[in-house]
Amino acid sequence: MKSNQWMSLLGLANRARKIISGEELTVKEIRNGNAKLVLLSQDASANTMKKITDKCKSYEVPYKLVEDRYQLGQAIGKEARVVVAILDNGFAKKMVTLLD
Q1: In whole angstroms, what is the distance from residue 74 CA to residue 61 CA?
Q2: Which residues are within 8 A (CB) of 29 and not within 5 positions of it... i.e. 6 or more apart?
Q3: Which domain holds residue 11?
Q4: Domains in the chain: how many in total?
Q5: Nearest Cα to Cα of residue 26 among 81, 95, 74, 99
Q6: Backbone angles phi, psi at 94, to 5 degrees
């Protein structure tokens, strides 16, 4: 995984205001159909992991796992973040290519 590239892209998406972070806000954006890709930390609690993955599957939103909450938070210039939703198709497509 090219960690620097995906983190840089996530930072860019953050500055463009095309992401949302936090469990409840992410679930809301998935329900509204605005989330194009969800990034979920591998060290999320079992409850959060199940809630987000089930929601993504039922609304057919792709999701990717990233190493830990600190990398996710660092990429967007905040403290630790467990889940981030990307709200833009272009950023989502590029992120999938970087994380595959």
Answers
A1: 24
A2: 20, 35, 85, 87
A3: 3-99
A4: 1
A5: 81
A6: -65, -40
Residues 6+ apart with CB under 8 A from 51: 23, 27
Residue with the two structure tokens 């953050």: 14
List, in sequence order, every beta strand (DSSP E) within the chain.
Answer: 19-21, 37-41, 63-66, 83-86
Q: What is the pLDDT along the chain (100 residues), one digit of tens a residue?
A: 455 888 899 999 999 999 999 899 999 999 999 999 999 999 999 999 999 999 999 999 999 998 888 989 898 888 889 999 999 999 999 999 988 8
**CATH number of the domain enclosing 44:** 3.30.1330.30
